UniProtKB/TrEMBL annotation:
Transcription regulation found in the keyword field: no
Domain spans labelled Yippee: 18-115
Keywords per UniProt: Metal-binding, Zinc
PROSITE patterns per record: YIPPEE (PS51792)
Domain of life: Eukaryota
Record protein name field: Protein yippee-like
Protein family per UniProt: Belongs to the yippee family.
Listed GO MF terms: metal ion binding
Amino acid sequence: MSSSSTSSTPVVVYQDKATFSCSNCSTVVALQDELISKAFSGRDGRGYLMHSATNVKHEKKEDRALLTGVHTVADVSCIGCNARLGWYYYKASDQSQKYKEGKYLLERERLIKENKWRLDE
């Protein structure tokens, strides 16, 4: 579900599903079912560790010193408005952090939680 494409047209993929969307332009970026943990820290506060994300583009890979050690990551941005949403974990140097590889850290403050609830009629 991840997209490293340079396409600038968001794709609607989660009709009637609970999602997280970009807080800047409302482009859907993740399915709430992909949430692994809410107990993470981003650059600007709390973050969510996610199995996947969509409608995002990966920036340049870099080694970054994070709270849990050095990781090879790439910032991810919304393809709808180019807002930075978090990062993608490519590689963790510490064995205990390997579970993050291939996952996304999306910053809570940069997301809108959309539940898609329906009332019975």
